[in-house]
Write a structure and sequence with these properties.
- The chain has one domain.
- The chain is built from three helices and four strands; from the N terminus they run ββαβαβα.
- A four-stranded antiparallel beta sheet has the order 3-1-2-4.
- Strand 1 and strand 2 form a beta hairpin.
- The radius of gyration is 18 Å and the shape is elongated.
- The termini are far apart.
Amino acid sequence: MTRRQRLKVFRTPIGFHDAYVPATSQKAALSAWGTDANLFARGAAERVTNEELSREPLENPGKIIKRLRGTAEEYMGSLPSVRIVSD
C-alpha cells in the first residue's frame, strides 16, 4: 500500500495576483508555477497556513488559483495625484 502525501498550500505573487497551489513540497510548487528558481529562498514564495486562504486551492488539486491582492480602488488610490494644467 502506498502512502499518500498530504497537500500543503503555497503562494507567490504574480503581477496584481497571488498564485496559490496545493502541492506536496516546495519543489512541487515551484514545478507547478513553471520555475526552476527557488522563490522560497528569495522570500518570493511562502507556505500558507490560513485555513480560509487554503480552502479553495485544496478543493482544486492540480490547479493554480489566482486571487487579486487588492481592489481596483486600492490600486487607483495608491497612484500619485496628477494635476492637469491647461495652456
